[in-house]
Design brief:
Blueprint lengths: L2 H16 L8 E5 L5 E7 L1 H4 L2 H11 L4 E7 L3 H4 L18 H17 L7 E7 L1 H12 L5 E5 L8 H7 L6 E7 L13 H14 L3 E7 L7 H14 L3
Parallel strand pairs: 2-3, 2-4, 4-5, 5-6, 6-7
Antiparallel strand pairs: 1-3
Length: about 240
């Protein structure tokens, strides 16, 4: 990628963040606080409307007790991206706010939810699309997460596979999924997603990470709640 372009988008994103007053994210909590598992999921307006069905689907797939905590992301491209990149859809570039979002989860959200004490709870980070990529990236940054549920993650993201090849996840298990028609699109970036997710799975295999890749029927915007639920359930079922 052109270094000058990356620097330009980086400066644009920093100016944008400086002019934006960040408010505490809204939270959406389902389940009981004494559950064995805590599921953390960044969500947008579309996801919020599907959370109730997602929770019901998880309960159908596993008997494990869990609490799901969704928190609202206002600027998807900025707050979930691990590094700056040019626009792929429309004119909005990607920022590098993933670290700040992860810091919020570790330093604010989890202490609030767990009331300052872990109590042996197993925390799983998950999400859909760019939130799925964010969850996957988090699995490389810290050993705090028991597992990762990355449903249709944006592994087409510029330089992501290079990152995956050069780093080892610090989590126990990783769930990956993709729609079987997602790579069949006219967008310049999306046809890469099929090969990228296959490569991601291969990398995890060579690193001896417990991982699976599930292919779902349909394109990217089909059944995001069900696909995410399947990821969370898979990771929980691997629990000891």
């Amino acid at each position: 990628m052109d270094i000058v372009k990356i620097q330009q988008y980086s400066r644009m994103e920093k100016l944008k963040q400086q002019n934006t007053q960040l408010m505490p994210p809204q939270r959406y909590i389902f389940g009981e606080s004494d559950s064995e598992f805590v599921l953390i999921q960044p969500v947008d307006d579309h996801d919020i409307g599907l959370l109730e069905n997602e929770v019901k689907t998880i309960k159908r797939l596993t008997a494990r007790r869990f609490m799901l905590v969704g928190f609202k992301i206002d600027d998807w491209n900025s707050q979930l991206s691990p590094w700056c990149a040019p626009p792929v859809f429309g004119k909005t570039p990607f920022g590098d706010g993933a670290q700040k979002t992860l810091d919020y989860i570790l330093r604010t959200l989890l202490p609030d939810i767990l009331h300052g004490a872990d109590g042996g709870k197993k925390v799983i980070i998950g999400g859909y699309s760019l939130a799925g990529l964010f969850a996957l990236w988090c699995g490389y940054q810290t050993d705090r997460f028991y597992g990762v549920a990355a449903a249709s993650p944006s592994v087409w993201f510029p330089n992501w596979i290079d990152f995956a090849e050069d780093n080892i996840p610090r989590t126990r298990s990783i769930y990956l999924s993709l729609g079987d028609k997602e790579e069949k699109t006219k967008n310049a970036a999306m046809p890469q997603v099929g090969n990228a997710i296959r490569r991601q799975r291969e990398i995890l295999n060579t690193q001896n990470i417990a991982a699976t890749l599930e292919w779902n029927a349909g394109k990217h915007f089909k059944d995001s709640d069900i696909r995410t639920a399947k990821g969370f359930a898979w990771v929980m079922e691997r629990g000891e």
